[in-house]
Amino acid sequence: MIRRQQPKQSMVRCRPPPPIRHPAPHWWNRSGKAEIMTEASTLTTSFRPTPASFPKRIAKRILPETILRLVRQKTEPSRQRITIVSFYTEGGYYEQKANELRARCDALGMRHDIQPITFAEGTSWSEICRAKVRFYRKMLLKHRSTVMWVDVDTKLLRNIDNLASKSYDIAVFMRGFRFLPQENFSLYTRRFHPGYLILNYTRETLELLYECKRIEQQTKGDYTDDYILEEAFRRTTARPRLMIMSPNDVSRPQDPENPGAYFLHGDSGNVKEFKGKVLQHTPDILRPESQKVVIQELISDAARLGKRTLVCEYLHAILARDPEDFGSYHRLLEISAKFSDPSVLATNLELYRNNEHLFPYAMRFRLLQALEKQDWPLADELFSQIESTGNEAVISFSRSRLFRASLDRRAGERGLTQAERVKLFWWEQPYPGNLGDIVNPYIVEKVTGIPPQWAGRGIGLCAIGSVIKYARDGSHVWGSGTPNSRDTLAAGAHYHAVRGPLTRDLIIENGGQCPEIYGDPAWLLPILYPRKLHPTHKTGLILHFTHEAMTTPVSPDVKRIDIRRLGYSEIEAFLDEMHDCERIISSSLHGVIIAQAYGIPACLATVTSSSTQIHGDGIKFDDYYQSIGYQHAPKEVDLSQFLIIDDDVIHPDGFLLARKPIDLTALLEAAPFAVTAGVSAAAQEWMQNWPDRAI
């Protein structure tokens, strides 16, 4: 018996991909085989396309080629195509060009929608140009697919369907058909040529076109379609993805032969006639911010040569171009103060008295000088003048500096030396102050009995807050933590205690040493300012300053507690408002920390709809919760999801207490300063009575 030999099946050896690696993208070569798109490697050289499935191999053997072609035509995705759109006025040159454009589209097998349009007698050329924008928006909505506007006197040289792609929203030529990397477009009033626009039917494209509609409704004067387009691109928040077409894609009659071009440009000549008569943009190079960059280079050169007078002249030039540039004005005043002749500063302080934007900064500069000289009566008088300006930015900054100076003022009244005071760093922004930062000097003064002295980053003690990254070799850290798990921490800093075990782990990873003493010093508040009130509200709400613009409505029954505070009286007012609540919802970590220190259940929240968010990668939340007995922080409750925030919006299980207290005795013993006996005794008593004393 002769055994029939089975036909051999072709076998392709493929290296199996790693189990968790995503498959690499592929493209199809001219032979129809898939090839991998990766950097050159042994994997790319050994790649073989995946064999066809078994049913496909059988079909190829038994079905005629004509049937297979029909099946392929029905199953292959249809090719993306472009519809040419344009309009013309009937009679004469433009109707002739429209007929030529239609015929050319038909000859090239291209879709087109070229329509006649009527304008009232006397309609200006600029008004006709503006109608283009309305027309191609109408065409895009009509066809709901890719369209291309071309001026009707354009000649198509070849089919442009292969320019169609879903990888962009809008395709444009640069102004004058220039090549983007080889031109300085800051010299020109416009960036893009308005006569050739490929518009994909996407949300971003439609948003840009509706921005065009708003601009046309709002703009007064005489202007054209290219003004509308330029203004829309400058204003839009949609930020459409652009494809910049090459100058090689278009030919002009005067250009040498270009066999690869898609378009032969036609030019009616009206642009030059009307240029200067219609509304124009200012070239980027003449905009104040562009001129400022150039002048600042001149300032740097003059400063290196020690030419202060010239530097001042350049700064005046900046202010002439931007009368609201308070940063340049402050620099002008700083340099003016270095002249031996005091009249230079006096002149520049008075020069902009009538400028409502700059003069408040002149008074702010005088306030800083008074505080540096510790001329307290003059500082008080200047602050009264600053308040009368109504400039909130200057008022808030001045309040912050006056608070810092108030510590020096009280220390001077008590005859304390700098050596007796703790040098302390705290973050002062957002001005005038944020409770989680401004509580630093309050706690240190209550614990030591001596007003601390503000000191800069790397010099002052890093205590409350996520400021440990500012410590340098030789700096002292007590209770601070990290906001980012990848921060580099100074190995040579003195770490007395930190917020939680994750911060300690990061210190050790960076080569530092740190004892296992954990706790945010804000936990000391219950012994420094004991709870006095019985709550009258069930729920209190504290929002981090980055979440202040939350749009979710809040029930009147929920007590809103502002996190922005400055000064000891405002800190204690914040604590009183918190004590007036049975429980706290907070997107600020220190709202949670302080509530739990007082034995008030707290729910950690967030506001994902906010345009600004808390910095960091979230390690600070896990860091803190591990210090009070949890393995990790609870999942934040997103306040954006609710229709209204009321007493019942969050389940009671979402409000947590500490599972174990911060060891206040160990925290105080680790402090790099002397603690008063009364505070030490209060801490020991509090620890003995926890949790009853906390509640």
Quantity of strands, as a count = 21
Average pLDDT number? 88
Number of helices: 23
- Helical amount: 25-40%
Main sheet makeup: 6 strands, mixed
Poorly predicted residue ranges: 1-50, 271-276
Quickly name the level 1 CATH class of the domain at 83-281.
Alpha Beta
Please give the CATH architecture of the domain at 83-281. Alpha-Beta Complex
Strand content: 5-15%
Can you list the strand order of the major beta sheet? 4-3-5-8-7-9
Question: What does this entry look like structurally?
Answer:
It is built from 23 helices and 21 strands. Helix content is 39%, strand content 12%. Residues 1-50 and 271-276 have low confidence and may be disordered. Among the domains are: 26-75, no CATH class; 83-281, Spore Coat Polysaccharide Biosynthesis Protein SpsA, Chain A, CATH 3.90.550.10; 521-689, no CATH class. Helix 5 (125-143) crosses helix 7 and helix 6 packs across helix 7 (225-235). The longest helix has 22 residues, at 392-413. Strands 4-3-5-8-7-9 form a six-stranded mixed beta sheet, sandwiched between helices. A five-stranded parallel beta sheet has the order 18-17-19-20-21, covered by helices on one side. By secondary structure, it is of the alpha/beta class. The relative contact order is 0.05. The radius of gyration is 35 Å and the shape is globular. InterPro entries: Polysacch_pyruvyl_Trfase. Residues 485-603 form the Polysaccharide pyruvyl transferase domain.
